[in-house]
Protein backbone atom coordinates (compact mmCIF):
# COMPACT_ATOMS: atom_id res chain seq x y z
CA UNK A 1 0.00 0.00 0.00
CA UNK A 2 1.45 3.36 -0.97
CA UNK A 3 1.34 6.48 1.16
CA UNK A 4 -1.39 8.95 0.22
CA UNK A 5 -0.27 12.20 -1.37
CA UNK A 6 -1.18 15.39 0.51
CA UNK A 7 -4.46 16.76 -0.82
CA UNK A 8 -4.85 20.49 -1.32
CA UNK A 9 -7.48 22.52 0.48
CA UNK A 10 -10.23 23.56 -1.95
CA UNK A 11 -12.80 25.53 0.04
CA UNK A 12 -14.69 25.97 3.29
CA UNK A 13 -18.35 26.84 3.93
CA UNK A 14 -19.23 29.40 6.59
CA UNK A 15 -22.76 30.15 7.85
CA UNK A 16 -23.55 33.81 8.41
CA UNK A 17 -26.74 35.63 9.48
CA UNK A 18 -26.42 38.44 6.86
CA UNK A 19 -24.91 37.46 3.52
CA UNK A 20 -24.41 40.97 2.14
CA UNK A 21 -22.73 42.14 5.35
CA UNK A 22 -20.48 39.06 5.32
CA UNK A 23 -19.47 39.60 1.68
CA UNK A 24 -18.65 43.24 2.52
CA UNK A 25 -16.61 42.22 5.59
CA UNK A 26 -14.60 39.47 3.91
CA UNK A 27 -13.90 41.46 0.72
CA UNK A 28 -13.17 44.82 2.36
CA UNK A 29 -11.39 43.69 5.55
CA UNK A 30 -9.65 40.47 4.45
CA UNK A 31 -9.36 41.45 0.79
CA UNK A 32 -10.89 38.24 -0.54
CA UNK A 33 -12.19 38.18 -4.11
CA UNK A 34 -15.92 37.96 -4.83
CA UNK A 35 -16.24 35.13 -7.37
CA UNK A 36 -20.05 34.79 -7.39
CA UNK A 37 -22.38 37.37 -5.82
CA UNK A 38 -25.18 36.35 -3.46
CA UNK A 39 -27.49 33.86 -5.17
CA UNK A 40 -30.63 32.09 -4.00
CA UNK A 41 -30.91 28.29 -4.04
CA UNK A 42 -34.31 26.60 -3.67
CA UNK A 43 -35.28 23.09 -2.68
CA UNK A 44 -36.49 21.63 -5.97
CA UNK A 45 -35.66 18.92 -8.51
CA UNK A 46 -32.79 20.84 -10.15
CA UNK A 47 -29.29 19.35 -9.94
CA UNK A 48 -28.22 21.80 -7.21
CA UNK A 49 -31.55 21.39 -5.38
CA UNK A 50 -31.19 17.60 -5.29
CA UNK A 51 -27.54 17.80 -4.24
CA UNK A 52 -28.46 20.09 -1.33
CA UNK A 53 -31.29 17.76 -0.27
CA UNK A 54 -28.75 14.92 -0.20
CA UNK A 55 -26.60 17.02 2.16
CA UNK A 56 -29.19 18.85 4.32
CA UNK A 57 -32.09 16.39 4.14
CA UNK A 58 -35.61 17.26 3.02
CA UNK A 59 -37.26 20.46 4.22
CA UNK A 60 -34.41 22.97 3.95
CA UNK A 61 -36.56 25.08 1.55
CA UNK A 62 -34.00 27.71 0.53
CA UNK A 63 -30.72 29.44 1.30
CA UNK A 64 -28.50 32.12 -0.16
CA UNK A 65 -24.85 31.63 -1.03
CA UNK A 66 -21.90 33.73 -2.22
CA UNK A 67 -18.52 32.44 -3.38
CA UNK A 68 -15.25 34.15 -2.51
CA UNK A 69 -11.60 33.26 -2.94
CA UNK A 70 -8.57 34.00 -0.77
CA UNK A 71 -5.23 35.32 -1.99
CA UNK A 72 -3.91 31.76 -2.22
CA UNK A 73 -6.93 30.52 -4.22
CA UNK A 74 -8.81 28.76 -1.42
CA UNK A 75 -12.56 29.07 -1.93
CA UNK A 76 -14.91 30.40 0.73
CA UNK A 77 -18.63 29.72 0.48
CA UNK A 78 -20.78 32.01 2.62
CA UNK A 79 -24.22 30.59 3.45
CA UNK A 80 -27.29 32.37 4.81
CA UNK A 81 -29.96 29.77 5.65
CA UNK A 82 -33.69 30.32 6.10
CA UNK A 83 -34.54 30.10 9.82
CA UNK A 84 -30.85 30.28 10.69
CA UNK A 85 -30.15 30.28 14.42
CA UNK A 86 -27.55 32.71 15.67
CA UNK A 87 -26.68 31.74 19.25
CA UNK A 88 -25.31 34.39 21.58
CA UNK A 89 -22.13 32.32 22.02
CA UNK A 90 -21.44 29.82 19.24
CA UNK A 91 -17.87 29.15 20.36
CA UNK A 92 -18.27 25.62 21.68
CA UNK A 93 -14.68 24.45 21.26
CA UNK A 94 -15.32 21.28 23.25
CA UNK A 95 -17.70 19.96 20.58
CA UNK A 96 -16.52 18.03 17.54
CA UNK A 97 -16.20 20.09 14.36
CA UNK A 98 -14.36 23.05 12.94
CA UNK A 99 -14.03 25.80 15.54
CA UNK A 100 -11.84 28.29 13.69
CA UNK A 101 -10.00 29.10 10.50
CA UNK A 102 -6.76 31.04 10.14
CA UNK A 103 -5.55 33.76 7.78
CA UNK A 104 -2.01 35.01 7.38
CA UNK A 105 -0.93 38.66 7.46
CA UNK A 106 2.52 40.01 8.33
CA UNK A 107 0.88 42.89 10.21
CA UNK A 108 -1.24 40.96 12.71
CA UNK A 109 -1.97 44.03 14.82
CA UNK A 110 -3.22 46.13 11.89
CA UNK A 111 -5.55 43.41 10.61
CA UNK A 112 -6.84 42.77 14.14
CA UNK A 113 -7.65 46.48 14.47
CA UNK A 114 -9.45 46.46 11.09
CA UNK A 115 -11.54 43.47 12.18
CA UNK A 116 -12.53 45.25 15.40
CA UNK A 117 -13.34 48.46 13.49
CA UNK A 118 -15.60 46.42 11.17
CA UNK A 119 -17.60 44.98 14.09
CA UNK A 120 -15.51 41.94 15.05
CA UNK A 121 -13.73 41.44 18.34
CA UNK A 122 -10.51 40.15 19.84
CA UNK A 123 -10.64 36.81 21.67
CA UNK A 124 -7.23 37.65 23.22
CA UNK A 125 -6.07 41.02 24.58
CA UNK A 126 -3.09 41.20 22.18
CA UNK A 127 -1.12 39.05 19.73
CA UNK A 128 1.18 36.46 21.29
CA UNK A 129 4.67 35.47 20.20
CA UNK A 130 5.40 31.78 19.66
CA UNK A 131 9.13 32.23 20.30
CA UNK A 132 9.48 35.40 22.42
CA UNK A 133 12.85 37.06 21.93
CA UNK A 134 13.84 34.57 19.21
CA UNK A 135 11.50 34.85 16.22
CA UNK A 136 8.85 37.36 15.14
CA UNK A 137 6.07 34.74 14.76
CA UNK A 138 2.83 36.14 16.19
CA UNK A 139 -0.81 35.10 16.36
CA UNK A 140 -4.13 36.26 17.73
CA UNK A 141 -7.62 34.77 17.89
CA UNK A 142 -10.44 37.02 16.68
CA UNK A 143 -14.16 36.83 16.03
CA UNK A 144 -15.77 38.15 12.86
CA UNK A 145 -18.91 40.32 13.18
CA UNK A 146 -21.04 37.16 12.77
CA UNK A 147 -19.54 35.13 15.63
CA UNK A 148 -17.17 32.96 13.59
CA UNK A 149 -13.74 32.45 15.15
CA UNK A 150 -10.70 33.27 13.05
CA UNK A 151 -7.03 33.32 13.87
CA UNK A 152 -4.34 35.53 12.34
CA UNK A 153 -0.77 34.26 11.86
CA UNK A 154 2.11 36.57 11.03
CA UNK A 155 3.98 33.84 9.14
CA UNK A 156 3.15 30.61 7.36
CA UNK A 157 1.85 27.60 9.25
CA UNK A 158 4.97 25.50 8.70
CA UNK A 159 7.26 28.28 9.98
CA UNK A 160 5.21 28.58 13.16
CA UNK A 161 5.44 24.87 13.93
CA UNK A 162 8.62 23.56 12.26
CA UNK A 163 10.70 24.56 15.27
CA UNK A 164 8.36 22.85 17.72
CA UNK A 165 6.17 25.61 19.12
CA UNK A 166 4.98 23.31 21.91
CA UNK A 167 8.12 21.23 22.51
CA UNK A 168 8.53 22.60 26.03
CA UNK A 169 4.93 21.65 26.92
CA UNK A 170 4.12 18.44 28.75
CA UNK A 171 2.23 15.97 26.56
CA UNK A 172 -1.18 15.81 28.24
CA UNK A 173 -3.69 13.11 27.33
From TrEMBL:
Keywords: Lyase, Metal-binding. InterPro entries: Glyas_Bleomycin-R_OHBP_Dase (IPR029068), Glyas_Fos-R_dOase_dom (IPR004360), Lactoylglutathione_lyase (IPR019883), MMCE/EMCE_epimerase (IPR051785), VOC_core (IPR037523). Coiled coil: none annotated. GO terms for biological process: L-methylmalonyl-CoA metabolic process. One of its GO terms (molecular function) is lyase activity. It holds the Pfam family Glyoxalase. This is Lactoylglutathione lyase family protein. Residues 8-155 form the VOC domain.
Amino acid sequence: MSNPYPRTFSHIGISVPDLEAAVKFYTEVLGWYLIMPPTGITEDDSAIGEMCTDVFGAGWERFRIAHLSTGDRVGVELFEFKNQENPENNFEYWKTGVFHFCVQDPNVEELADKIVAAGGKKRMPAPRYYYPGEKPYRMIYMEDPFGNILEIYSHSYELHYASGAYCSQVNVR
